[in-house]
Amino acid sequence: MSIMAYQSVFRTELFKGHVALITGGGTGIGRCVAHELASLGAIVVVAARRREPLEQTRREITENGGQAHVELVNIRDEESVDTLIRNVVAKFGRLDLLVNNAGGQFLSPAENISVGGFRTVLELNAVGTWTVCRAAMLQWMKEHGGAIVNIVADYFNGFPLMVHTGAARAAVDNMTKTLCQEWGKFGIRINSVAPGTIISSGMQNYPPPVQQMITGGFHTENPSGRLGTEAEVSSAVVWLLSPGAAYVNGACLRVDGGSSLSKAAMIPHPDDIPIKAFLGYSNASRLGERDIPPAFGELLAQYAAKKTTSKL
C-alpha cells in the first residue's frame, strides 16, 4: 500500500477490515471523513444523489492506496435507503460504521420560508437521517452491533436565518440520545457531532455578502479566534467511531472552538427597544431603582419611557 495522502492523528490500520458508509460523502465534511477512514484501513462507501462528486472522492482515495466505493441514494426515499444498505451488506458482508452527513438547507429569514420549504429541510435532515439509521440497524447492526455518528450543527442558541435546519438538527440530536438508550442492547453506539462554522465547500451555498461577513470579522468571534476545518470535524467523528470512545454513547460532541458558548450574532440586533420592558412598580423611576447602581437606574427610566410598536 502506498503512503496515504491523508495524515490522520490516529494509528494506521485502526479500522482495517471495517466497512464504513458515509452519506453525503462526495463533498465537504463527508468527503474528509471518507478520506480519513480510508487512510486508517476502512473499506469506505460514499453515498449521495449525484454520482460525479462521489466518483471524484473515490478516485482520490483509491489513487492513494485506499479502498472506496460509490453508491447512489436519495435519503428522503425509504426504498432507496433500503437498497443502499442491502447493497453494502451484499457486497462487503458487513456494515460496521455509519456516518450520517447528508443534508441540506438554504439561507432565509424565518418569515420567508414556506411550509413546503420547511418540510423539505426537515424531511432531508431529520427524517432522512432516521431512515438511514433505521435501515442500517434492521439490516445489519441489530444482530452485529456497530457505531453511528450523526452530523448535526451548532443549533444550541437557535439558528437565525436557518430556522428549518436548526429544528431538524435539534431533532436529530434528540433522536440520537433516544436511540442510544433503545439500541445499546444491540451493541450499537450512536453519537452526534455538532460542527460550528467550518471552512468547507458548503460555504459556496452562502451568498457573497454572508461570505464577506464571515471572513471579515465573524470568524474571530469565538474563544478560539478562528473558524474550524473539515479535518477537525473528521477527527471528532473518527474518535467517536473508534474503540477509544467505547463508553461514549448518546453524546453530542461540539466541534466549534467554543463558539456555542460565546460568539457574535449572525444577524444584527436592534439598537432601539422593540419589545417593551415590564417593570412592575408604578413609579419605576424611583421604586425600581432600589439597591441598583445609578447607571442601571437610568436604563430602567429609559425602558419605562420607551415607546415601542409592540402591542404586548
Automatic annotation (TrEMBL):
<dbReference type="InterPro" id="IPR002347">
    <property type="entry name" value="SDR_fam"/>
</dbReference>
<dbReference type="Pfam" id="PF13561">
    <property type="entry name" value="adh_short_C2"/>
</dbReference>
<protein>
    <recommendedName>
        <fullName>Peroxisomal trans-2-enoyl-CoA reductase</fullName>
        <ecNumber>1.3.1.38</ecNumber>
    </recommendedName>
</protein>
<keyword id="KW-0444">Lipid biosynthesis</keyword>
<keyword id="KW-0576">Peroxisome</keyword>
<keyword id="KW-0443">Lipid metabolism</keyword>
<keyword id="KW-0521">NADP</keyword>
<keyword id="KW-0597">Phosphoprotein</keyword>
<comment type="pathway">
    <text>Lipid metabolism.</text>
</comment>
<comment type="function">
    <text>Participates in chain elongation of fatty acids. Catalyzes the reduction of trans-2-enoyl-CoAs of varying chain lengths from 6:1 to 16:1, having maximum activity with 10:1 CoA. Has no 2,4-dienoyl-CoA reductase activity.</text>
</comment>
<dbReference type="InterPro" id="IPR052388">
    <property type="entry name" value="Peroxisomal_t2-enoyl-CoA_red"/>
</dbReference>
<keyword id="KW-0275">Fatty acid biosynthesis</keyword>
<keyword id="KW-0276">Fatty acid metabolism</keyword>
<dbReference type="GO" id="GO:0005777">
    <property type="term" value="C:peroxisome"/>
</dbReference>
<dbReference type="GO" id="GO:0006633">
    <property type="term" value="P:fatty acid biosynthetic process"/>
</dbReference>
<dbReference type="InterPro" id="IPR036291">
    <property type="entry name" value="NAD(P)-bd_dom_sf"/>
</dbReference>
<keyword id="KW-0560">Oxidoreductase</keyword>
<comment type="subunit">
    <text>Interacts with PEX5, probably required to target it into peroxisomes.</text>
</comment>
<dbReference type="GO" id="GO:0019166">
    <property type="term" value="F:trans-2-enoyl-CoA reductase (NADPH) activity"/>
</dbReference>
